[in-house]
Amino acid sequence: MKIFVTGHLGFIGPSVLRLLKKAGHEVTALDTGYFRDNFDAGEDFVAPDREIVKDIRDISAEDMRGHDAVVHMAGLSNDPLGRLNEELTYDINLHASNKTADLAKAEGVSRFVFFSSCSLYGVADTSRPVDETAAQAPVTAYAKSKVGTEIHLREIADESFSPVFLRNATCYGISARPRFDLVLNSLCAYGFYQGEIRILSDGSPWRPMVHIDDVAQAVLCAVEADRAAVHAEAFNVGINSENFQIKDLAQIVKSQLPDARLAVTGETGGDDRSYRVDFTKARDRLPGFQPKWSVQKGTTQILDWCRRRQDAAFEKVNGRDFIRLKQIEHLHEQQQIDACLRWA
């Protein structure tokens, strides 16, 4: 298949490219390149067959012409970036995503795999896990944008255009473009480099967790599945056993860093976003999906990365190479991008 991937230079992109290429697919990839230089040469990166350097807001029909499927990952990737400017989040994550879908359909692309998020469940009753039929209560602009694009994709789905919604859990793991602004990666970095596993909230919120390699496998399954199995379907991507409170994640990290101190700072106060997620549907109905990672195994991977790169130091791991918001702020301060996040 000829597959068009957006946002391949982000955190999850390298895992997705590697798996698609290993499966024998021809990949064209588009990315504006905010994080092109945030690259870890110690991790494998499989290049696409063709690369387009372009802002997703400027995507054209010609870019996608001749492709069988689109995997749409591009966007401002977490809540701190979303709070940078909510209108920009809607411009990039919602309007540009809808435009991408419209152009893909017009060009005869038959499969559209959309990176949605479990964050759209927002505030949920944590006494039981929520499945794909649960009410949505998005709290942030990021989550609201995901809801909006899912609605649009359902509206334009038809016999020739088949969207799939991957509602990914909170990601963790090591990538060729690593991040340490995600909860498990951050807990590991603080514990390893600072000797203090810091919980910024009160530790009570629930988060479903998933490794980026398992997300990449879900992408491959969604791309290759028969239409009847996935057409206009949402799949929570993760594992039922991998729902944790933040304080439990910290204890898992501490079990592998016994000398580190556990600190609940509470500096961010409570967190309205708390949800447990049911992943049964993906396990039973997403053909071929067999996630392999656990938070315990992922913690080991992240800490092994830290041990191999002790010279990185906490200042680097907590700097713009590994924190998405700091990289965006750096590009803006250097006048490389403008206030609308367009290249100057």
If you consult CATH, what is the topology? Rossmann fold
- How would you sum up the major sheet? 7 strands, parallel
E-strand count: 12
Strand content: 15-25%
Distance between the termini: 36 Å
The CATH homology group name = NAD(P)-binding Rossmann-like Domain
Gyration radius, rounded: 19 Å
The quaternary organization reads as single chain
Tell me about this structure:
There is one protein chain. Helix 1 (13-22) crosses helix 7 (212-224), helix 6 packs across helix 11 (295-308) and helix 9 crosses helix 11. Helix 5 (141-156) links the parallel strand 5 and strand 6. The chain starts with a strand and ends in an 11-residue tail after the last helix. The protein is built from 13 helices and twelve strands. The chain has a seven-stranded parallel β-sheet with strand order 3-2-1-4-5-6-10, with helices on both faces. A three-stranded mixed β-sheet has the order 7-9-11. The protein has a single domain (2-333), classed as 3-Layer(aba) Sandwich (Rossmann fold), CATH 3.40.50. The chain is an alpha/beta fold and 344 residues long. It is globular. The longest helix is centred in the N-terminal third of the chain and has 21 residues, at 86-106. Helix content is 38%, strand content 17%.
